[in-house]
Amino acid sequence: MNHMPTLNRRAFVIGSAAVGSGLALGLDIPFGPTVVRAADGSPEVNAWVVIRPDDTVVIRIARSEMGQGTLTGLAQLVAEELECDWSKVTTEYPTPGQSVARKRAWGDFSTGGSRGIRTSTEYVRKGGATARVMLIQAAANEWKVPASECTAASSVITHTPSGRTTTYGKVAEAAAKIEPPAEVKLKDPKDWKLIGKGVKRLDTADKTTGKMIYGVDVKLPGMLNAAIKACPVFGGKLKSFDEAKVTGMKGVKKVVKVGDNAVAVVADTWWHAKTALDALPIVWDEGDNVKVSSASIAKWLEEGFDPSQPAYIGNENGDAKAALAGAAKKVEAVYNYPYQNHATMEPLNATALYTADKCEVWCGTQNGEAAFAATLEASGLTADKCDVHKQMLGGGFGRRGQTDYVRQAVAIAKQMPGTPIKLLWSREEDMQHGAYHPVTQCKMTGAFDANNNLTALHMRISGQSILFSLRPEALVNGKDPATFAGLNATGEAAIGYSVPNLLIEHAMRNPHVPPGFWRGVNVNQNAIYLECFMDELAHSVGQDPLEFRRKLMAKNPKHLAVLNAVAEKIEWGKPAPQGVFRGLAQHMGYGSYVAGAAEISVTDGNKIKVHRIVAATDPGYAVNPAQIERQIAGSFVYGLSGLFYGGCTVKDGRIEQSNFDNYNSMRIAEMPKVESIIMPSGGFWGGVGEPTICVAGPAVLNAYFAATGKRIRSVPLRDQNITFA
Amino acid sequence: MANLTINGKSFDIDVEPDTPLLWAIRENVGLTGTKYGCGIAQCGSCTVHIDGVAMRSCGVLVSEAVGKKITTIEGLADNGVLHKVQKAWIANDVPQCGYCQSGMIMAVAALLKEKPKPTDQDIDEAITNICRCGTFQQVREAIHAVANA
Questions:
Q1: Does the ipTM exceed 0.90?
Q2: How far apart are the first and last CA of chain B?
Q3: A394 chain-B contacts, CB cut-off 8 A
Q4: Cα(A617)–Cα(A465) distance, integer angstroms
Q5: Which of residues A149, A181, A209 is at a domain's end?
Q6: CA of B48, closest CA in chain A: separation in Å?
Q7: Are residues A396 and A477 in the same domain?
Q8: Count of structural domains, chain A
Q9: Cβ of A347 and B37 within 8 Å?
Q10: Within this chain, do residues A306 and A187 fall inside the same structural domain, yes or no?
Q11: Residues A154, A189: one domain?
Q12: Of the candidates B27, B37, B135, which has its C-beta nearest A270's C-beta?
């Protein structure tokens, strides 16, 4: 897709026509026919760059900031090419409605799969470069000199022969009227000054004073608050509720049915709404799923290991089955991985205002365009009558890529036209109506010849597909390719081992619990399966787990490089401190190569203290190493929280966990020191927010085996009475 | 009706005495820096100071807070001058999504008032807030930075 500003000139025509027809775009065009203006009247040099007369540079960000630093990283990319003064950079979100009205001038809004930066690097840098060329041209025109004699740095344009200077703020108005160049050349990476620099985040100050507005903090005149309960059994319906029991309660305005499976109380305050909702008698039609339990799901998944059951092949070379049949030695193990809730700190919420000819939504979302589409669908209005105003996300982790909460807010607001409704889920609702990390089991089988060489590896995954539920159009002849993340032969999530006979397959079984993309997604369980089993294989033939891996990784030097880096830093070959044991793991996901090594001690066989983590990542290019370091450290908190505590169990068709008292998350006391090794090898753009999570679990589990001789093959450790010391 | 003293100001609010202080602060007074995370005093996102002590406001009733001196994140700065913890949070780029950080900062400010030079163990014992982004490493560094300033 071409995101060059030439598009925007055409978009202007569409935009002004739309304004003429009464569409509120948030774009005001009072001064001239060819300049698109920001809300404050400052000229857009192009869709990505607005420059105010005081030299403030406003960089437009289409992707969502949810803590991962994308907002700052994307601004760095634009600013690198723009050659602006970084200290005067600020950012703003265009709305999805504006983008659609301008033929998707800002491209994809989706912020998931660690793609926020890596899939938009080209066009956002071109946005910055194009703006720079136009600004320089405007100055040259004013001075009546060739643009080739002018340079720009730190928002100052200099005419080199005469030494004259001007600033971006002074020429932005004129630059906005210049026809953008058809082609711009991007900088050679060796000339980058801002990309690769660990500059401070742009969004920190307000997060320390309480001023930052998250979706949950939105206030609109006349706004009411809604609390909601959906049928606790997934797939169940709302049968009836006794409104009369709560209508007299303080603050209660209305009780409404939401879709076919939920009921909401609308009140002056959320506390009143929730209090009334808790008192509301509700009858559910729970349906057949009420019979499902974790045990019944596990049994169904185990049946998927039966070779007579169908399975999709994800990666195959040689003849693994024949090699296994003729093996001198075979090793077999079954692993399993549970449902997990994202548990974003900010429970799901959205605010909607519906009138007969307009529907607006304010919410945190990982995908503004998906929230926009949901608003259209739920309101029944057309794109020109809807918009979504993105707020800061109090965590996303994949959950806010979905739009169920947006649809609900609109459905409630539609029943109270003209009144803004803020819908907020209780933590309990959030915990029990998630889009859960899917449940799988995996049967691992390895074969050795008489000389203890690994001759075959067979992975048979049985369990749930995310794409089957969420993006069935992405299935390939029924197969969910994403299931094989980190296990593929090639690509952005490729396996790091060469095994002469390899078979990796998936017996798809989709229980009724809705799955979702959970930070890291399928590499999380695949890395545990593969990396713990690699450890098992090494130990089964008396080999060092690092050396065993190295022998299989000669053809994958980038995988090997990060593994070697952590091994060296944690001093793998040397004795660990007294009572301390080591484990390691490597994997690839989201285009990046990652490895982790852990040092742990174990007391009483079940209390783990994680003393030290070393983590290496090769993301190709590292846009902001300081933020990457924070993503790596945070990934271990998310990954180890998942390993120790993160399991959602199913009973009577519903999720048993309800809040942080029974679905715990790591605290600072449990957090090991994470030593990050950021080793960008250049030439590609890998993701950062997710890949590292997957090595946290296996590194610690392998260390646990080293410490105890006991192999843990089931997550979470909570359910095996293993805790943090 | 209840009278609450928040950030040095007196507020007469129309609220039932058994309302959790968190919701009175957010909805009746309108200060939204204090966050709802769990409602059962587990996560610490709603931490405020009550008579100088860090408390989880979702677990405190309005009736229990009447007559006490309540400080929220909005009242931590002194006449526009940021508290040393806020300054350290900015200097160390601590927040990621930031949602838990109001509570985290309030908890840390209370710790440092009691123990100006906390050990790692002091930090482990006093700071039990949940952060799902996993900012703990930067939180710890920033606490030590304040202590050693």
A1: yes
A2: 44
A3: 35, 97-100
A4: 27
A5: A209
A6: 12
A7: no
A8: 3
A9: yes
A10: no
A11: yes
A12: B27
Q: Specify the amino acid at residue A431.
A: M
pTM here is 0.95
| Chain A residues close to B89, C-beta within 8 Å | 204, 207-208
Domain-terminating residue out of A151, A177, A209: A209
Is residue A199 situated within a structural domain?
Answer: yes
Residue in A with minimal Cα distance to B105: A208
Nearest to A409 by CA among A427, A421, A392, A395: A421
CB atoms within 10 A of CB A19: 15
Determine contact, residues A495/A315, Cβ cutoff 8 Å.
yes
**Mutation target vs A (from B133, B138, B146; most A CBs, 10 A cutoff):** B133
Would you tell me how many other CB atoms lie within 10 Å of the CB of residue B11? 18
Q: Could you tell me if A50 and A127 lie in one domain?
A: yes
Is residue A151 within 8 angstroms of chain B, CB to CB?
A: no
**Residues A503 and A550 placed together within one structural domain of the fold:** yes
Nearest CB neighbour to A210, from listed B39, B72, B90: B72
Token pair recorded at residue A430: 């959030």
Token pair for residue A77? 């990319």
The one-letter code for the residue type at A156 is V
**Looking at the structure, do residues A603 and A640 belong to the same domain, yes or no?**
yes
Distance (Å) from the alpha carbon of A26 to chain B's nearest alpha carbon: 26
Judged by CB atoms closer than 8 Å, whether chains meet at A346 and B37 is answered as yes
Residues A194, A267, single domain; the answer is no
Please indicate, yes or no, if residue A4 is contained in any of the structural domains. no
**Is B11 part of the contact surface with chain A (CB cutoff 8 Å)?**
no
For chain A, the residue count is: 725
- Which residues constitute the domain of residue A363? 215-287+348-424
Segment A464-493, tens digit of pLDDT: 999 999 999 999 999 999 999 999 999 999
Identify the pLDDT of residue A34. 67
Domain annotation covers residue A322? yes
**Residue A487's pLDDT is what?**
98
A395 touches chain B (CB under 8 A): yes
